[in-house]
Input
Amino acid sequence: MLRTYKSELIRFRRTALIGAGIMAAFTALITTLTFVGFDEPTGPGAGRGPGSVVTDLASIDGLMAGLASAATMIGIVALALFATSVARDYERGTIRQLLVGEPRRAFVLGGKLAALVTVVVAGVAVSAIIGIGAAFALAPIADVSTAAWTTNAAVSAAISTAVNVTIATMVWGLAGAVLAMVTRSASTAITAGIGYLLVGEPLLTLVWDTSSDWLVSGTLSTFTDGGTALVSYGQSAVLLTLYAATFVAATFVVFSRRDITD
Amino acid sequence: MNTTTTPGPSIELQALTKQFGSFTAVNDLSVGIERGGVVGLLGPNGAGKSTTIRMLLGLIAPTSGSGRVLGHDVTRPSAYMHRVGALVEAPVFYPKLSGRDNLRNLAVLAGAGDERIDEVLDIVDLTGRDTDPAGDYSLGMKQRLGIAASLLKDPELVILDEPTNGLDPAGIVEIRELLIRLGQSGKTIIVSSHLLAEIQAACDRLVIINRGSLVFEGPTHELLDRSRNELVLVPESRNDMSKLAALLDDKGIPFTTNGVGLRAPDATAESAFVNRLAFEHGVTLRELRVDVEDLEDVFLRLTNTKETT
Output
């Protein structure tokens, strides 16, 4: 599996760098919008009390506010990366070469997913660093105090956010992998993934309003936010684990049983 | 690199069958291929060659029947694929990477080092062009790079699917010479093609399939023994066709007609007799010759792709 992992990293180097760069760019953009593009409520006491954007940004969670807000966009990039990596081998015909080199399909897929997870971890790490740098750079412009950001609690919160976003991003990616494995087309898989996010799940939520508590996108948001009033962080973590396990199992089953006729 | 060998034939297939829905791509194929030399797997387009090769490589699962590759069950490719190299259809490379870097990437999978890359580049005669982008390679060079990739594991068995596809005559000659060299190295080379003439000179043995079924298996020279010679008779006047046909019929000589002349497959030794017979009955022959079927004709006839003349 280590050979497939290495081979995948070599072959996917360029696309992975672009993907990680897009993740970081989204984080930088959303962090900037978070700090300088907000519309503070007006009126007596506005801008200083609870619920104020400036007050929230000055809290221990403010340091990673950009990364947390960019989580969905980073997830979509991961979905596209995983889908492209999986489907590209079918589209280009390199799947034949891969399986002639390594006939154990579980190893091929395992190595590929491990390489993609590495890219996701690196991409989110770079995004987190960019987000933190941008937050410190923009705080004076937005008149946001950074005093709370350097406390131990803030560091702990930042690590927690980065880990949550990393895990959520991996699940997004795994969703892209299973879609690409089934469709054998990167564009179809990405369109289906984004279509579900933008149209499918909102429609389901309209019809069945509690479904957002357990549908994929809703669960990912809940997990990244550290839980909601209705669904705890632990519950969302369990649900997300089930989704991830289902995606991985489905990808492996389809790949191991499929005839390679492409 | 690979020194493990097991006795027995390279490939043994027993009633191997592959169906895609209601379409039978390979039908009840039984064949044995001994070790060493170059074996041609021939058949027209859609004969089932690529499907057979994919089953041998574990890319697709047989619907029924059984097969063994290097002594291992064909449904367990992980047991033998480390001893098998293959080029399946057109070789696929990253165009911006050099030929060497493309091989390096595949060498990671094969567990081969830089020394082996040098060796295979030398075998396919690409040393000197190995640092050029693969996208700049001619079709022949890409095919040779694909063959180099198939040799990275130093395999006992090399399976090449249509390596001459799309090549010009010079490229075909290059690949043919390469196959002969590989065959002399002690490896078993299986090369598929839909054109016998392209690889005939390189092959010691031939396996011919058509519509998924075996139509010939044996040494290349044995295929020649199946050639048919026909006595061709063309009368000077078309009006004499029926008279000539009646004469042959009367003497019990079987024939076919194509409107221009008659073809008598079993009368090649009796040309003088037939000539006299026609003359004595007032039929002047414009043509009297023996048509010798060459290997390509036999192949086309066996695979039912020869046009009726």
Q: What stands out?
A: Chain A has one domain: 2-257. The mean pLDDT of chain A is 88. DSSP finds eleven helices and no strands in chain A.
